[in-house]
Design brief:
heterodimer; A: 818 residues; 25 helices; 47% helix; elongated; B: 349 residues; alpha/beta; 2 domains; 5-stranded parallel beta sheet; globular; ATPase_AAA-3 (chain B); MoxR-like ATPase (chain B); ATP hydrolysis activity (chain B)
Chain lengths: 818, 349
């Protein structure tokens, strides 16, 4: 009992250690207090149940009850009797907390503050893991299994942080796991009795075994390798894991301070778009008859994880805002207008949506600032929820002809430098070069890239597409042609940058539904992202590459018309990116096919996608190889059996002499060809022995055929019809080995079959299956072959080293000097 | 030196069935007297047919002498019984030359050993000098007295009994003499049923008195000839050698079995095989014989003695370790290292 108590405490402590990765999620440490309390209560309940000699189910019930009481105590909020005993209201409260946690997950960015919902979930999770760990380690005495729930904790920050994670929580967690393993094994060894060292000195109860140093070294090496190996693989953090993220494509997560003015816009966007239900976010009234989208954020930096925003800088908002960067208002037609915005509680961001480009804002306090470069209104501390404000703005209207005149900027230009750098992705580069080939000016180049995202080329809108804007994600999107505004905007920006033209991703709202009495109500479904391209003299010009059919309230412009409009004949649209990259109309996303334009995919060139991703080949090849490896022993066994069967069947021809074997009470014939009969008897016997090995029956090389058969009959064939056949096989082998005249083999094959059937009939299913799939006889033979090969090698090596010692040592200079 | 040969030649072996019938008759005859000891009786018969000598060693009163006498009575041939005592002289065993007044010559008076079956009771009570008088005749089937060698008849078998308990005033058999006995068997106590049956059988008179012979000396010679013709495969010969070699290499044995024991082991195995109705020897025969034929010849080390390990236990363990022979060389299931043990494994220590 004492040892189990110790192990239970270790299990609890190991759970707390394994929870270390949660520290990456939370900014504070309340989770540790609450989660640790849960673990302590669960562990205490388990100890109590065990000290009362409760069975495993009783221990489980006690732990569950302790977890429930603990959660009620911490999160019950007056719904419980005496604050501890849960009532139906308590469960309703828990349900609310769950829902709250769901919302908080969508709204928050790591590291999160101490939010009730998330704290509740983390306390529940730690408590549950504590229960599982206790069950595995103490109840079932399988501490290795306890690693799985511990690993589940670690997978939480792994899923949240796409890029990289500090190895320290992992090391802490693995120390907890190793501690658990060590405690269990020490206890196991202890149960053998007193321990001694090689010199006969007694070892104290909890003193580590002298043999344990090898295990310790192995453990340390294992942890080191687990930490160091991923660091040595450069691609692990960049593309591959990014595919699994849930729309949190920010690269700098977890690195450096996170100001409030800087949020993960992509995560916000995809989270809100996928959110069930429609929430009103912004109500806007404007006197502009033809407004464009409202913006509130910009992502203009590319890192390993894709587009990201940078820390905005600017002045506090005032009546007089600086002119929009790079826009020469005198050169374009512009429309001055005024807008009034009311933000609901549902839009809570450190950013405020405004039309481009605001000239003055009223109704905001000094907490809000304006970044003229990004043209966004932001705050370091305030939240947009509930704000209402008014602003004047100037909407510029560009024409394609004007934009064509925009000169290519010098490489030294700040905008050019800052906004056109992009990691080189060969596939994107190839595609871009192909698309902009022969285009004379920047506008035509951008249009060529913009027009590429057409239904004709197979592009579809799919909000369920994998999120992410990293290079790999862009390539995937360009190949799969399925995505939502985030991918369209990022991909176009990426391609425009690849073409050497400054571009960025803007976030905001579309125009929304039709205005109701002049008021446009913008919901979470109207959240949108698009591309902005910088033209010298015209500033940032918006291009919305997302198929307009799917964007409620989209606003095609003269310079960026709807590429899917029927009368549109976009120039520069190439039939396909490159051979084999078409998603194909029969792609897997069938149900999401455009209901309005069902032929959309068919218009594009139908190129059968025969270029599967490499991993498919690798996985298929690996699977086949594994399958081949797995099936080899079974095949070998079948071949052996067939060969022996054939050999035994040849017996039919030949001259026979009748001889009575009274000892066996079996009338036998003796083949004229003695050697053949011997071989056949041996084949049948080998088959019998292999069958016995396959069915886990002991085969003793020190046992004669006669004794082997008698043991087989007494242990594996009780009252079986195959007893006579088994004796016949034993007799045949005995005579083949030792008698001057062997028995005939003609009845051996059916006898082998009958005995085999009988043995298999007596064996249980697992053994039968193993005999079929992984015949131990074949494995044993291979192992023996490997072993004897190794022994031979060792002997040869030792001979060589002997030779070296005998012949070479006397020649060593040190010896000669002596 | 003259040699006098007596007894018949070993000719005319029997068929398997005839052999079985004859030997079964002998065994059944003996079992009228010795209840429930079939294996022991058959082993005794096997030793006779293997032209060997039998040492029966057990506590008093379990039927040692009875077995010897029953075996002797079942065969219609000359039987002599010697009760060994400390004052028994060698000449009492072998015989003595007496001066004959009438012929004016020394005349050889054959001793007790001149019989087909010699029952030596309590052999360890005699002095070593007398015991060693048996040596020559047992191994060489001849007696030399005063430069004249007298051959023994065939069959010739010495059945000696000895009591392992009361060792006071005894002369334990010297190693050389023990080695001359083909097999040593222990009678063991009968089981309850056999003992109960014995009470009935011995109620009024000794059934040994009623025992009549079932075979004569000639038949026994034919039986022996049959045993000699039993086939021994090369693999089995190899196994016999391996088995005896293993006793010499066993770390628990100070003295292993002699080459003579190999010969006698195989000979007895042939007899056992024939008794079993086979015309070939199987390793099973050697395995069953390993303890009776080899155990009394080996000497355990002091360590093994201290650990109360009997030679019987050591030998049966040895048998269970040694892989059986295979006419295809090494058994595919033999997991022992293929290399000779003196190359690699010796160096590890």
């Amino acid at each position: 009992m004492n040892s189990r108590r110790h192990l239970g405490l270790v299990a609890g402590a190991a759970t707390v250690l394994a929870s270390a990765p949660i520290s990456d999620i939370f900014a504070g440490w309340s989770w540790l207090f609450e989660g640790g309390l849960m673990v302590a209560m669960v562990t205490g309940a388990a100890l109590g149940a065990r000290s009362l000699r409760g069975r495993l189910w009783a221990q489980l019930l006690a732990m569950l009850a302790a977890l429930l009481i603990g959660l009620t105590w911490l999160f019950g909020e007056d719904t419980a009797i005496l604050g501890l005993i849960p009532t139906p209201d308590t469960f309703a409260q828990f349900g609310k907390l769950f829902a709250l946690a769901g919302e908080e997950v969508q709204k928050s960015y790591v590291p999160v503050p101490d939010l009730d919902g998330l704290l509740f979930v983390s306390a529940l999770g730690m408590g549950s893991v504590a229960i599982l760990v206790d069950l595995c380690a103490v109840g079932l005495r399988r501490p290795a299994l306890a690693g799985l729930p511990m690993l589940a904790i670690y997978s939480v920050p792994v899923a949240v942080y796409v890029d990289s994670l500090s190895p320290i929580p992992f090391v802490v967690g693995s120390i907890g796991f190793l501690w658990l393993l060590v405690s269990d094994n020490v206890d196991r060894v202890r149960r053998f009795g007193r321990r001694f060292t090689g010199e006969g000195r007694g070892v104290d109860v909890w003193e580590p075994s002298p043999l344990a140093s090898a295990g310790r070294r192995l453990a340390v090496i294992g942890v080191l390798v687990a930490v160091a190996l991923p660091l040595a693989v450069p691609a692990m953090s960049a593309g591959f894991l990014g595919e699994f993220g849930s729309g949190d494509g920010l690269g700098q997560a977890g690195k450096g301070p996170r100001g409030n003015g800087r949020v993960d816009l992509f995560a916000e966007l995809s989270g809100r778009l996928k959110q069930a239900g429609v929430q009103d976010m912004v109500k806007v009234t404007t006197n502009d008859p033809d407004p464009f989208y409202m913006r509130f954020g910009v992502a203009d930096q590319i890192s390993g994880g894709g587009f990201a925003s940078h820390q905005p800088t600017g002045q506090p908002v005032s009546d007089d805002l600086p002119d929009p960067a790079g826009l020469d208002l005198s050169a374009v037609r512009s429309q001055a207008a005024t807008a009034r915005v009311e933000i609901t509680e549902n839009f809570a961001m450190p950013l405020l949506p405004v039309y481009s480009a605001p000239t003055s804002i009223r109704g905001l306090d000094a907490a809000w600032s304006y970044d003229p470069g990004l043209q966004i209104v932001y705050s370091q501390r305030a939240n947009s929820a509930g704000h209402s404000y008014e602003f004047d703005y100037v909407r510029a209207e560009f024409t394609p002809d004007q934009l064509r005149t925009a000169p290519t900027m010098a490489a030294s230009d700040a905008n050019q430098r800052q906004y056109s750098n992009v990691p080189g992705v060969p596939q994107v580069r190839t595609l871009v070069d192909k698309l902009i080939e022969g285009k004379a000016n920047n506008y035509d180049r951008v249009r060529a890239l913009y027009d590429h995202f057409s239904a004709k080329n197979g592009f579809k809108y799919d909000v369920a597409a994998p999120a992410g804007t990293s290079g790999a994600a862009i390539v995937d999107f360009l190949n799969n042609k399925r995505g939502f505004c985030e991918q369209y905007a990022a991909a176009l920006a990426w391609m425009v940058r690849t073409a050497g033209i400054p571009a960025r991703v803007a976030f905001g709202f579309t125009l929304g539904g039709a205005p109701d009495n002049g008021v446009r109500t913008l919901t979470n479904r109207n959240l949108h992202a698009w591309t902005e391209v910088y033209f010298s003299g015209y500033g940032w010009v918006p291009f919305d590459a997302t198929p307009s059919t799917y964007v409620v309230g989209s606003a095609p412009t003269a310079w960026a018309p709807d590429v899917d409009a029927p009368d549109q004949t976009p120039d520069g649209v190439r039939p396909s990116l490159s051979p084999g990259t078409s998603g194909g109309p029969d792609g897997p996303g069938g149900p999401t096919r455009d209901p309005i334009d069902p032929e959309g995919g068919l218009i594009g060139p139908i190129v059968v996608d025969d270029e599967l991703p490499t991993w498919v080949w690798v996985a298929t090849g690996g699977g086949l190889l594994l399958f081949a490896l797995l099936i080899t022993p079974a095949l070998r066994r079948t071949m052996l059996r067939r060969r022996r069967g054939v050999r035994a069947a040849v017996a039919a021809s030949g001259s026979f002499t009748e001889v009575g074997i009274s000892a066996a009470d079996l009338t036998m014939t003796v083949v004229g060809d003695v050697d053949t009969a011997r071989r056949q008897a041996h084949a049948a016997w080998d088959e019998l022995i292999d069958t016995m090995i396959d069915h886990r029956l002991v085969v003793d090389p020190a046992e004669t055929p006669r004794a082997t058969v008698e043991r087989l009959i007494s242990t594996a064939l009780p009252a079986s019809v195959a007893v006579e056949q088994a004796r016949l096989l034993g007799m045949a082998e005995e005579r083949a080995r030792y008698a001057p005249v062997p028995l005939s083999a003609e009845r051996l094959t059916p006898a082998v079959r009958a005995v085999r059937r009988a043995i298999a009939g007596e064996a249980d299913r697992g053994v039968r299956l193993a005999a079929l799939l992984m015949p131990p006889s074949v494995l044993l033979r291979w192992r023996n072959a490997a072993y004897s090969g190794f022994t031979t090698l060792s002997v040869r090596m030792s001979r060589v080293s002997d030779f070296g010692k005998r012949v070479l040592r006397p020649l060593r200079p040190g010896r000669l000097m002596r | 030196m003259t040699t006098q040969r007596s007894g018949g030649e070993l000719t005319d072996p029997m068929t398997v069935d005839e052999f079985r019938a004859t030997t079964n008759a002998i065994v059944a005859n003996i079992e009228q007297v010795i209840e429930g000891k079939t294996a022991t009786v058959r082993l005794a018969l096997a030793v006779l047919l293997a032209e060997g000598h039998l040492l029966i060693e057990d506590v008093p009163g379990v039927g040692k002498t009875k077995l010897a006498k029953a075996l002797a009575r079942s065969i219609d041939c000359s039987v002599r019984r010697i009760q060994f005592t400390p004052d028994l002289l060698p000449s009492d065993v072998t015989g003595v030359s007496v001066y004959n007044q009438e012929t004016r010559d020394f005349e050889f008076k054959p001793g007790a050993v001149f019989a087909n079956l010699v029952v030596g009771d309590e052999i360890n009570r005699a002095s070593p000098k007398t015991q060693s008088a048996l040596l020559e005749c047992m191994e060489e089937h001849q007696v030399t007295v005063d430069g004249v060698t007298y051959a023994m008849e065939i069959p010739f078998m010495v059945v000696a009994t000895q009591n392992p308990i009361e060792m006071e005033g005894t002369y334990p058999l010297p190693e050389a003499q023990r080695d001359r006995f083909t097999a040593r068997i222990a009678m063991g106590y009968p089981d309850a049923a056999a003992e109960y049956a014995m009470l009935d059988g011995y109620h009024s008179h000794d059934p040994l008195e009623d025992l009549t012979s079932v075979v004569d000396g000639g038949t026994v010679r034919r039986l022996i000839a049959t045993v000699r013709s039993v086939h021994v495969a090369e693999a089995v010969k190899r196994y016999a050698v391996e088995l005896v070699t293993a006793t010499r290499e066993a770390p628990e044995l100070r003295l292993g079995a002699s080459p003579r024991s190999t010969l006698q082991l195989l000979r007895t195995a042939k007899a056992v095989a024939a008794l079993d109705g086979r015309d070939y020897v199987v390793p099973d025969d050697l395995q069953t014989l390993a303890v009776p034929v080899l155990a009394h010849r080996v000497i355990p080390t002091a360590d093994a003695q201290l650990a109360r390990r009997t030679t019987d236990a050591i030998l049966s363990e040895l048998v269970h370790r040694l892989p059986v022979p295979h006419d295809r060389g090494r058994s595919p299931y033999d997991t022992r290292p293929a290399t000779p043990p003196n190359s690699f494994y010796d160096r590890r220590g």
